[in-house]
Amino acid sequence: MEPLFEQFGVDMYLSGHMHMAEFVKPVNMSGVVTSEPVDYRGLENVYVRPKNTVRVVQATGGIFMFSDTYKTPAQKWSAMRNDKFGYGRLTFHNATLAQYEYVLTEHDNAVHDSFFIAK
Questions:
Q1: Among 33, 69, 74, 75, CA closest to 54
Q2: Closest-CA residue to 115 (of 82, 84, 79, 87)
Q3: How confident is the prediction for the chain on average, in pLDDT?
Q4: Backbone angles phi, psi at 103, to 5 degrees
Q5: CA triplet 8, 14, 15: central angle to 5 degrees?
Q6: Are 31 and 2 in contact (CB under 8 A)?
Q7: How far apart are alpha carbons 27 and 51 in whole angstroms?
Q8: Looking at the DSSP assignment, which residues form a beta bridge with residue 101?
Q9: 47 pLDDT exceeds 90?
Q10: Helices then strands, each counted (H, E), the chain
Q11: Does the N terminus or the C terminus of the chain have fewer Cβ atoms within 10 A?
């Protein structure tokens, strides 16, 4: 799918799998991180015009399929990993700024982690 993401300039890809959550930094087809989040215009954790797609795996709304959590250490391209119950919230603040939040339902709907994409 990566060639299609690059061809059409996809900024974010949302999916669900394994009943866990992970944010993946923009990487190219070789797995090389091409953009790191920065502080930007008073906001933290912003991908400014990322060269590749930011991926979100969000599948923490139901019962876990396995008793163990992540079995391997986080890779360099992983921005966040978690296995707590929650949901994702995507907000478009304007035509050039989007925000994704991982909200924990087990902790009074507190935002566990978030990032922005600025174009």
A1: 33
A2: 79
A3: 88
A4: -105, 130
A5: 125
A6: no
A7: 8
A8: 89, 114
A9: yes
A10: 1, 9
A11: N
- Structure-derived torsion over alpha carbons of residues 101, 59, 77, 31, reported in degrees to the nearest 10: -130
Q: Are 2 and 11 in contact (CB under 8 A)?
A: no
How many residues in total does the chain contain? 119
Q: How far apart are CA 63 and CA 60, in angstroms?
A: 8
Tokens of 3: 């060639």
Helix (H, G, I), strand (E, B) or coil at 106: helix
- Tracing tokens 């799918």 back to the chain, one arrives at 1
Q: Tens digit of pLDDT for each residue in 55-97? A: 998 877 766 666 556 677 888 889 998 888 889 999 999 999 9
* Residue 72 burial (CB count, 10 A): 5
pTM recorded for the entire structure:
0.87
* Alpha carbon separation from 4 to 11, 21, 46, 78 (Å, rounded): 12, 24, 23, 21
28: CB partners within 8 A, 6+ apart: 2, 34, 51, 52
